[in-house]
Amino acid sequence: MELFEVLRRRRSVRRFQNRTVPHELIEKLFEAAFLSPSSFNKRPWHFIVVDDREKLKALSNAKLGASGLATAPLAIVVTADESRSDVWIEDASISAEHIQLAAFDLGLSSFWVQIRNRMHDERRTSEEYVRELFGIPSNYRVLCIIGVGYPAEKKPPHGEEVFEWDNVSHNVFGEPWKEPGNSSVQ
Ligand SMILES: Cc1cc2nc3c(=O)[nH]c(=O)nc-3n(C[C@H](O)[C@H](O)[C@H](O)COP(=O)(O)O)c2cc1C
Description:
28% helix, binds flavin mononucleotide
């Protein structure tokens, strides 16, 4: 698929068909992740492939807003070694987004479940919860989980409403770069 077609049509999907994601496609998702840029090319990421139904169910309780993982056949836990890069958040985020875009290009759908800075309950962070579930070493931080699968819901592509040209300034913050209603993006 053409890149802009992927960008326009990719939507977060949180309900999935009961259908396994083939191994070759999972491999392609990681090819996309490994093609990510990273600061100083440090590549601090580490991913956990989760296709165990019990673990997926446990992940769906990591926090509010994770319940879609209960129907996902696959989740990818995105972690990074904070001792290797001071900008691990940026590096890991880009790799996670590469996975989401590649998933859509491969006929799959996905959604991002934020883990960093989120709470499992009043006492435990979502990060601690996920860390314990997989035995993740303490120098690895958990950024997010990408739920992946064949979609069981249909969503329209993004339209003109996302083009917020008033959030683009020209030379000075707040100085319009583009007049409203004059979009050249198809
Ligand atoms: C940093 C980040 C955190 C997100 N956290 C969650 C989340 O915890 N649960 C969820 O269902 N969706 C989450 N999302 C998905 C957003 O809700 C979604 O991308 C947004 O509503 C736009 O919709 P779209 O992805 O269909 O374009 C997150 C997305 C990002 C980029």
